[in-house]
Amino acid sequence: MLLIRCPYCEEERPELEFRNAGEAHVVRSADIAAESDEDFEKFFFIRANPKGITFERWRHVHGCARFFNAVRDTVSDKFFMTYKAGEPKPDLAKIMKSVPAAAPAASDDATEDKPKKPAARRAAAKKGDA
Amino acid sequence: MAATHRIAGQGRLTPAKTLRFTFDGQQMSGIAGDTLASALLANGIHLVGRSFKYHRPRGILSAGAEEPNALVGIERDATRKTPNVRATVQELYDGLNATSQNRWPSLSFDVGAVNNLLSPMFSAGFYYKTFMWPKTAWKNVYEPKIRAAAGLGVAPDQPDSDHYSARYAHCDVLVLGGGAAGIAAALAAAETGACVILADEQAEFGGALRFETGATVDGTDGWSWAQASVAKLAAMDNVRLLARTTAFGYYAQNLIGLAERVTDHLANPDRDLPRERLWQVRARRVVLATGAIERHMVFADNDRPGVMLASAARTYLNHYGVAVGKNIGVYTANDSAYAAAIDLKKAGVDIAAIVDLRDNPAGDLVEEARALGIEINHGRAVIRTGGRLRVSSMTIQPKNGGGERTIPVDALLMSAGWTPSVHLFSQSRGKVAFDEETRRFLPGTYAQDCVSVGACNGTDGLSASVEEAYAAGAKAAKDAGAKAARGTKPKVEASESWSRGMLGAGPGAGPETTVKAFIDFQNDVTAKDIRQAVREGMHSIEHVKRFTTNGMATDQGKTSNMHGLAIAAETLDKPIPQVGLTTFRAPYTPVTFGAIVNHGRGALFDPTRRTAMHGWAEAHGAVFEDVGQWKRAWYFPKAGEDMHAAVNRECVTVRKTAGLFDASTLGKIEVVGPDAAKFMELLYTNPWQKLEPGRCRYGIMLREDGFIYDDGVVGRLAEDRFHVTTTTGGAARVMNHMEDYLQTEFPHLNVWLTSISEQWAVIAVQGPNSRKIIEPLVEGIDLSDAAMPHMSVREGKICGVPTRLFRMSFTGERGFEVNVPADYGQAVWEALWAEGQKHDACAYGTETMHVLRAEKGYIIVGQDTDGTVTCNDAGLDWAVGKKKTDFVGIRGMTRPDLVAKGRKQLVGLKTRDPNVVLEEGAQIVADPKQPIPMKMIGHVTSSYWSDNCGRSIALALVAGGRDLMGQTLYVPMPDRVIEVEVSGTVFFDEKGERLNG
């Protein structure tokens, strides 16, 4: 069971108190009714689903009930930070610098000859390009 | 039976404390402190089970948790039977009743052993290829037969009458493994004052000191030092000792799952005690001191009863005082087996010979064995064993071939070396690394705040292990925030040391042979199977594992994984690290379902929610149905009535006079604030700004994708206050949905949301006489049609308590919903019931509620909609505010597919034969004569007998349904085809005149 820091309660609480609420920083258009099919598709259906660092929403549903955002590595399940809803998306490069342990965890497939490229960094590069 | 193999003066048990037990019905005796295995061995019994696939006779291999063979069933009574108990772990108690498994009719004569002769059929992967034809035979013949013949114990057939408990704990330092290293680490950590938990799977702490006679610490023998140290730890307030406790899982952020066996060792456990206690421990630092497990040698027929691990024989002798044979052979590739031979020889047991695969074994142990007159055959191998139900001989040969020699033995001890137990380390997501020199996997890269010490870390020898562990324990405490303390490090004066061994198959079991040289005893996997798997294309160890099932039994390959890997690597001609190690997963050893399920069974599996009026309904004979966690009154049968009769009566009574219905389970949310109306505009399709306070509106909530999510009547109590109702099942998710938008998309709106579902009990009073029933009890509200028309809400008092009184109808009749604080729910219900009696009103349940609303074509979200239905599909376009520029779902509902022609639309269905009631969920076709598979154009969503209509009625979703009014469609059923006519959705009082009737 993960420990998750609620940025409103300002303490780590067990995962059982929380519920994941999907990808963060997906912005609903202020004029959504006029949105094109393509834009609505991107907004509603398309998700990054990265292997590595992900920005996601959580709700402290059995606690303060607030929604907040988190930066998590989907490979190691490590949380790098959590922050309040509405705060700007953190700079990934800064996070990586402050957390040198952002290394990939063991995968099920231990049979590869070469060590894997860290998934986190791969994801970071991709985000940086975008 | 007499304990023929107990040696007086050996071991640590007290002979005076005898215990009786039975094995397969045979009475035997043991001594307090025995395991079932040591007691059986004391009685000269090695044969304890039959193997999984070939039904080969099997004995006791080990003296610990790694045991693959000696699995038995333990039965206390009919409700307390446990299959697959490792005899090497089960402590003996007086009256213990054990039975062997996987044999018929008896252990010594087992019909299933014919599988051994048929073994060519059961080679690796046989499951996937032998029984492929004919196709149906797999399901009907092969699988049931194979499953019946293969297998382990029999699952209990009655609910477990034991109970299980759970504890959560936090500590600074959690030490897993209570051998010498674990004890040393715990001592060091505890001396700093840190909060320490030390857990070990055995009844007593001490680990390998149980058999290591060569250890001396702090001036005493190793075992005594361990007991004294544990006594010292037990006296400290900051230390918790957990014996009989297995750390089975290492989870995220240093959360460890521990299973403590509380009563399995007791003859007559207090029934108030839990059988097991599940611990979930969150530790700042974890010290892994999990030791190492000895490997067997891989050679032909290495599985006969009497063939066992050298350290196990040594444990049985030095701890339990039991000799595993009277004339014992030893086959080894390392030094530690010599110690076993020496201890046994000194205890007066004959050692037939030591067979050592190494060419020139040397060292103190070898010299000592030689000095004791033990025959040592170096550079030689045991190439097969003789015997049937017990090993009777070993045949040896120079390792590169040559003359064979058969030596009679009644037990054969093996040691191929020691495998560090990196299971928990690996579960923590640490990466193991292969050490080329010692050919073993050791902890490499750590992923969590833990440290490995002693044998599991590849540290050889007691002295080095204790040194390392003590330092690690002190550091763990410091890292966890404790202050440094001056402790007294244990001083190891004499130490035994591990030595290198071998991996893979020995001589006589090489690729050129077809012998059964077992790697995995529990799943009957041989060296040959591994090679065959590689030959057939399994080049990853993960594939080899699944194809052969090596390491997939309940012992999870504790003795077999490294051998299997080595043989695969050899066959592939690749170095071991390139073939890789399979992933270690929790649990380390099997955990009972009882411990995991714990209190969460029966009534405690899930909360039961009851309304304020539940007691009244119960007293009045209601039959209840489960709606989510709620118990809802389904119908109220009178004497002699079945459900059908009761529902018919209730339906007619409501329309004739009136009925009372408990609607408390509906979700209720109060939306309050200056921007409440703006918020409602955004969350519901309807317009709300102009709804006057005191009026109600039927609201529809969409998801962003444009599909109907929930519905309910909303009353505006004041400019800034809405009383929102939701479906019963939707209450929690609608609240979540609203909070989500309020907190993250529309945080600028000044609104508060409060769940009030539990605060208000709701009594629906419906029917032409409903006003007459409530009128005498209501104060301060004008109930006339002019003052309080349909779809309005007033606040006042009823029976002297506050009420939010809604005039609304889910039946099509004049109706009210009386909301009162939940505490008054039953009292107000009883008062209304008394009034209702004067008008011959009835109480009605959810079934009648469903029928009445279907007669009126009112939908139930989740029954007539399924998450893919739009407002238009449901005929509810009128509820969408046409002038609105934004609400959740406004864009989704104009997606091309959602406005396309031919969508399924909600319509009514009338069967040609009015007496036929359709089945809900039945499929609808246009042409019943078309070939199968037919084109299905829709399905029935709601269907009932309606006494009020004098016929059956149904709602259905049908493609382009509204264009098919009056047309005939067909509902094919297994026994007939039912003709139906498409109709409107309102079956009763189409004009809606009765709302004010």
From TrEMBL, chain A:
Residues 117-130 have a biased composition (Basic residues). Residues 102-130 are annotated as: Disordered. It comes from the Bacteria. Signal peptide: none annotated. Pfam families: SoxD. GO terms for molecular function: sarcosine oxidase activity. InterPro entries: SoxD (IPR006279), SoxD_sf (IPR038561). GO terms for biological process: tetrahydrofolate metabolic process. This is Heterotetrameric sarcosine oxidase delta subunit. It comes from Pseudaminobacter salicylatoxidans. The lineage of its organism: Bacteria, Pseudomonadati, Pseudomonadota, Alphaproteobacteria, Hyphomicrobiales.
From TrEMBL, chain B:
Residues 481-502 are annotated as: Disordered. It comes from the Bacteria. Residues 904-989 form the Aminomethyltransferase C-terminal domain. Coiled coil: none annotated. Residues 172-447 form the FAD/NAD(P)-binding domain. One of its GO terms (biological process) is tetrahydrofolate metabolic process. One of its GO terms (molecular function) is sarcosine oxidase activity. The keyword Oxidoreductase applies. Keywords: Oxidoreductase. InterPro entries: 2Fe-2S-bd_N (IPR042204), BFD-like_2Fe2S-bd_dom_sf (IPR041854), FAD/NAD-bd_sf (IPR036188), FAD/NAD-binding_dom (IPR023753), GcvT/YgfZ/DmdA (IPR028896), GcvT/YgfZ_C (IPR029043), GcvT_C (IPR013977), GCVT_N (IPR006222). Residues 516-596 form the SoxA A3 domain. Residues 613-884 form the GCVT N-terminal domain. Belongs to the GcvT family. This is Heterotetrameric sarcosine oxidase alpha subunit.
